[in-house]
Specification:
Blueprint: E1 5-14, E2 19-26, E3 32-39, E4 43-45, E5 58-62, E6 67-71, E7 74-76, H1 83-95, E8 107-109, E9 118-120
Amino acid sequence: MRPWVRLSNEVLFRSPWVSFEHDRFRLPDGAEGDYYYVRSPGAVMVVPFDDEGRVLLVRQYRYLLGEDSLEFPAGGLKAGSDPEAQARAELREEAGFDARSWTAAGRFASWNGVSNEVCRV
């Protein structure tokens, strides 16, 4: 597949964590369109195991859902920050734990289609 061509970019809103942007683009067939998305410096997620090999989750209230959510400790990266240091901080902050060892498991596009965010696990 041939890539789309960005014709223009406009930052609609910028917060300390993300920006909301609008691109005008051209498809390989020549058609043009608009794409609205969230630009993010990335995120980290920790999949913690206890001494018995059980996976640990945290319960957090999520405003947009209006309820608690069970999830892995995670958080956004600041531009230029160290992913492992941020992952360690998220585990401490959200679960109250420190890990004896760390293994980078990979990365995934957490909101593909809506954001350029890549989450490191």
